[in-house]
Amino acid sequence: MKFRHVLLGAGLVMGASLPASAHDFWLSPAKYQISPAATVAVQFKVGHNDSAEDWNLRWDKVVALRNYTPDGVADLSASIIQKSDLLPGAAKTQSLEAGTYVIGLESYHSVSELSAEPFNNYVEEEGLTAIHDYRQQKGLTGTAGTELYSRKAKTIIQVGDKLTKNAVHPVGHTLEIIPESHPYDLGEKAALPVKVLFRGRPLEGALIKSSALKGANHKAQSVKTDSDGKATVSFDEKGPVKLSVVWGEPLSGNPRADFETYFSSLTFSVNN
């Protein structure tokens, strides 16, 4: 399955052919739990969990890369090392003292186009009800789908034993998964209540997917948010996990695309 990929950030336009699974995107810290007064390198992954590749990290693809600390917000843009033939692309935090840290990335928009059947399948699989209903109502299910999309990703790093409240606060991403209890203090049942916000408001009917990352064996699961944008995800193993959600809406009068779509992910490690 292929689609046309165009980068719009910083005025740069380039064509490429990538698998549709490349929409999956997450932040992968070298360690999710560390001792105080240490730095953490963060890599940027794209694809499926079992066949992840390094994202083509460049400064002109990044709107913002920030560290939401217990005491405020730190800009990590200057730490970006672009992807090259020799390096995978990464960023690095400042020295972190005890507490919880949320690293958040926002990308510039890109454009993708899929022919009718692959696009319909993608809309169904990701639970994009607004796009599905629009295409049904307008009789567009037999036509290709073009979307303007961007990526929003967070990872939560725990330093020492001090759990801080910033882990459960929104950072302001357009589409965002927010833990409602601290992910490094889940208790014996290892159940995490979460909320999905879209443009700052609870999003009903969003499909949250949970899957294990490298080094873990969590069972894959999917849950839909209720009218308050809430859902609960349970974990049966230890180790790193990724939560992801996609949402999109029809665009009006945009020459580049028919829909605008946001991809959001949250990674952390279950330590119970």
TrEMBL record:
In terms of domain of life, where is this protein from?
Bacteria
Residues spanning the signal sequence: 1-22
- InterPro entries according to UniProt: DUF4198 (IPR019613)
The answer to whether keyword Signal applies is yes
The alphabetical list of record keywords is: Signal
Q: What is this protein called?
A: DUF4198 domain-containing protein
Q: Which organism is it from?
A: Salinimonas iocasae
